[in-house]
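Escalated from tier 1: zinc ion holo job.
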Amino acid sequence: MITIDALALAQALIRRPSVTPKDAGALDVLEAVLKELGFTTHRLPFGDVDNLYARLGDTAPHFCFAGHTDVVPVGDGWQQDPFAAEVKDGILYGRGAADMTSAIAAFVAALPGIGKPKGSISLLITGDEEGAAVNGTVKVLEWLKARGEKIDHCVVGEPTSVARTGDTLKIGRRGSINFKITVTGVQGHVGYPLKAKNPIPVLAEVVTQLASHKLDKGTEHFDPSTLAFTTMDVGNDTTNVIPGQARAAFNIRFNDKHTPESLTNWVSDRMTQIANQAGCEFTVTSQTSGVAFLTAPGKFTQLISDTVAKVIGESPFFSTSGGTSDARFIKDFCPVVELGLTGGTMHKADECVPVAEITALTGIYAALLKAYFAKPPI
Ligand SMILES: [Zn+2]
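Tier 2 regenerated the structure:
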């Protein structure tokens, strides 16, 4: 039987400086190992992004592990070499060590123990998660759909854990939408304000009203939605001109009580009321980077929870907090949850993960695959 050392594989991946969207040979490393394990592999380049889809078996049920080999830029302040993958005092250092090269290595290391699955195991690995996320998971999922391949369940290996690996399972994510608003009045002389229409107090009123509004009280699985202003600009350097326009921008992180449409309508309604009263015009533009989703607790989440409890001695906390991940695309195809390493250092200088955590995650993934194919949660 082939054995794969999770640490050695994680190190080999970190040593490829795959700063998004560059691949730098990371997918080659992974593809070679998966081929050795009998997987049929497909390289799927879209635009400037390379992706890898590998599958073992051709029957249902089909369990997919999703992840990314790209990493965020190094940034400043490193004491360690970000691409040397050195282990010091039992801790593996390197960009991607936590987010999420080591989780991919842990999953691959769990595979030889499973043998030939009674169904299919696949890996959907993109090089475009930390960047635009346009030519990665989304395109691979479309490619799978066009081929008639159906995934039954998916685990994304993002670093979801908090204090120890396995303590937290993400069963959903909040959505995120960015707004830009502009209030247009009439420019004029500060000495003759009645001949102008100052947009600044109008924008200030909009900001106050939107920022103080409680969007909801949260749900059983989600915290309350939040709205945060990121800027408020007039850009007027003069002292004697009332400006014609004033702008602001804000972000809403929303739970499954809202949709991008409901939020856009709400913002427009509020602004119409305030701007109309003041006799000003306004524009609103928005860009959605992800909608909220929830994989409702059921057979699949129970299987994972029970398995994790058996391995680490405690059941994972079901969470929906944090930013967005590629699970936001996968949720349209099958139930998806996220389970990975502790993420305390992700995107930071001296990103690292204890080697023991990688070993623990390998054990969790191995037990999960065994449990999944012993009694598929369908
Ligand atoms: Zn990640």
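The radius of gyration is 24 Å.
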